[in-house]
Amino acid sequence: MTLQEDHVREQLKKVIDPELFVNIVDLGLIYVVDITTREDGTEEQPKYDIQIEMTMTSPMCPAGPQLVAGSKAAAMELDGVEEVEVKVVMDPPWTQDMMTDDARDQLGIF
Q1: CATH code given to domain 5-92
Q2: Which alpha helices (DSSP H) does 1-110 contain, by range?
Q3: Which end of the chain is more exposed for a tag (fewer CB within 10 A), N or C?
Q4: CB 18 within 8 A of CB 66
Q5: pLDDT for 59-70, tens place per residue?
């Protein structure tokens, strides 16, 4: 089975923002998930590198290092993943509009 972006995003839902108690995917913090198939894998045992671009709810988010480390650790748990790079970007800035309906319901935002 080939690793797909939706597999990675589903895995990243395990990472919970410790201030808001909502996962980082539903919060809209994950901007880009780029999966590269490595040449040193085989058809039966493919190997992958993942590049993730994510943001924080604010530039000075105290949970930033924890969220980056959690994202990297969660993605590394996927079969065949060899390397994960997580880049924090602030453009475009995060807004509440980026949250899913599930996140809005959890936070009581209508």
Answers
A1: 3.30.300.130
A2: 5-12, 64-76, 101-107
A3: C
A4: yes
A5: 888 999 999 999
